[in-house]
């Protein structure tokens, strides 16, 4: 691996971790339903997916998930985050590759698929399908977050070249 690629990985992973930490500081309790997040770290993944490669985006996403879980979370948050990140990246990569979706559409699909994966993990951990009732709430929040992140991501991808 070149030192330039390693530096990009380190910079983008640090940025993703900082965004994750920043997101944890935003007081959403009482304002939005539990489990709803802004998805700011997806800005970094979208940037890597559009300006680097799928492999690079996957490596950055995985490193971020592991480091954030060890730094701020626990084994449950790791499982939720890993499942959400993996499904989200897979869906976004497929839609991007198809060429039929804008960056905004790819981001929305990423936000929605992230929430679907997390609900599936919660259902497995708690051994109940009853949590599926919460999916519509998370789908709406995934769409909203995906639009916001996608709009910001489109600006970032347009303005920053590597």
Model description:
77% of the residues lie in helices and 0% in strands. It has helices at residues 3-25, 42-51, 54-72, 75-98, 103-126, 135-159. The protein is globular and about 45 Å long. 34% of the residues are buried. The model has no long low-confidence stretch (mean pLDDT 92).
Distance between the termini: 16 Å
- DSSP E strands, number: 0
H/I helix tally: 6
Q: What radius of gyration results from the CA coordinates?
A: 15 Å
- Describe the main β-sheet briefly: none
Helix content: over 70%
Strand content: under 5%
Please provide a brief summary of the model.
This protein is mostly helical. It contains six helices and no strands.
List keywords for this structure.
0% strand, 162 residues, mainly alpha, globular
Please write out the topology.
Blueprint (H helix, E strand, L loop, with lengths): L2 H23 L16 H10 L2 H19 L2 H24 L4 H24 L8 H25 L3
Helix pairs in contact: 1-2, 1-3, 2-3, 2-4, 2-6, 3-4, 4-5, 5-6
């Amino acid at each position: 691996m070149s030192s330039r690629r390693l530096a990009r990985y380190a910079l983008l992973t640090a940025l993703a971790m900082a965004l994750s930490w920043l997101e944890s500081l935003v007081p959403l309790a009482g304002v939005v339903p539990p489990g709803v997040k802004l998805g700011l770290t997806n800005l970094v993944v979208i940037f890597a997916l559009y300006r680097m490669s799928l492999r690079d985006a996957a490596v950055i996403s995985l490193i971020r998930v592991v480091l954030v879980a060890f730094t701020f979370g626990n084994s449950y948050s790791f499982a939720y985050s890993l499942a959400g990140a993996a499904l989200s990246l897979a869906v976004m990569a497929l839609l991007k590759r198809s060429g039929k979706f804008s960056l905004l559409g790819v981001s929305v699909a990423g936000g929605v698929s992230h929430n679907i994966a997390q609900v599936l993990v919660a259902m497995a951990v708690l051994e109940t399908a009853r949590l599926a009732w919460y999916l519509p709430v998370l789908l709406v929040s995934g769409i909203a977050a995906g639009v916001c992140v996608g709009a910001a991501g489109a600006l970032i991808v347009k303005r920053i070249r590597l």
